[in-house]
Amino acid sequence: MLSEVFNNALASLSPEGPAVLGVNMSPDNKFAFVELRTIALSDAAQHLDGIELCGRNMKVGRPKGWVDPSAEAKATAAAAEAPTVASGVKATTSAAAAAAAAPAADTVGQGLFPTPNDDADDPAMQNARATMHMRATSERDATMAIAEVNTRFPPTPLGVPAQTLTRRCVLLDGMVSSGELSSPRSREEFKEDLREECAKCGIIDAMVVPPPPREAIDAGDPGRAYVSFQAECSARAAKDMLNGRVFDGRVVAASLASDAEFERARNGEWLPPRPPPGDPSLCGILRVRGMPPEATKADVVNFFYGMGAEEDKVKIIIAPGMANLAGSHPGAMSTGEAFVEFSGDDANIQQAALKDRAVLGGKPVSVFRSSLEEVQRVALMGRTMI
């Protein structure tokens, strides 16, 4: 279980394979050493400190006596006094049944703050300074990561009714080849033919046929067009009418597109191909941690706006002993954790996963991949989800 927790949380940072190389559990099951693939992964793993496992908060930190590999050669004396774990973290809980670990101090005893009589070359002092520098670097990197993600995704306030995604645009792929759209004149002619066909479904606001780049033409990629309607029902009708139809021996792929995609195409951008709606790569389950306890399902839906989250697909985990209050005080007993399922035509779990460390209700939240098996395991542990 402990390996699965770390592997799931660090999956996006370890594309080459599972993040965990091994777990060494203590005989009494009160703590464990977790060996990770890289130092960078062990740095990231420390952000899991405080997450809930088996009904208790897990504490994650460096094992006592951990030595930064860059300073290891100069810290022989300090390393001889305590075991060294090259790229590990120590996880503990106070529960014997919990597969987790107890916090470990990174300090090395006396001499953390030097005096005029301290020896500048003392190995223990250098190890302490290296540890302090590592902590400062990790905190700075975390702060920069939060700032970066919230530049891309603005903070989501609480208490706003769930926003319903409106898609008035249709993306049409494959009616013609990209080579047939290489000139402005050919694009205008195609646009007029397409306008006549799409007008059967409703009033058209605007149309865009982006110029294909040379690479797309050389690769024989299909041409594409975007049609924006005044009403969403018109866009959906056009999608249903055109998807799968054959034009000049070509099968058309029609799907709903976002306003942002339409604007990018209007500005001349040739967007990379994306999986079709409902593709398995766009669907799945995410686990969210660190939400304000008063956050509701509507707040979670707004946090993932435009990515396929719906209120009936959000399950908020309830604190132990508080399930009887679920009806009258839904915000008073939340653990700040939730499972969110992404499915259907609007699902885009790949985009949703990028919101890790984005702000919800003034708090940066953690977002990572989960699974139906994890949801079922939490339920079997007796946890209530609403």
TrEMBL record:
Identify the SUPFAM superfamilies for this entry: RNA-binding domain, RBD (SSF54928)
Q: Which UniProt keywords apply?
A: mRNA processing, mRNA splicing, RNA-binding
| Signal peptide range | none
Question: Which InterPro entries does the entry mention?
Answer: Nucleotide-bd_a/b_plait_sf, RBD_domain_sf, RRM_dom, RRM_euk-type
UniProt entry tagged with the keyword Metal-binding:
no
Q: Which GO terms describe its molecular function?
A: RNA binding
Q: Does Iron appear among the keywords? A: no
Q: Which CDD domains match?
A: RRM3_U2AF65, RRM_hnRNPH_ESRPs_RBM12_like
Coiled-coil ranges per UniProt: none
Q: Name one GO biological process term.
A: RNA splicing
Kindly give the Pfam families that the UniProt entry links to this protein. Answer: RRM_1
Source species, domain of life: Eukaryota
What Gene3D superfamilies does the entry give? Answer: 3.30.70.330
Residue stretches making up the RRM domain: 174-259
Protein name as it appears in the record: Predicted protein
Q: Which organism is it from?
A: Micromonas pusilla (strain CCMP1545) (Picoplanktonic green alga)
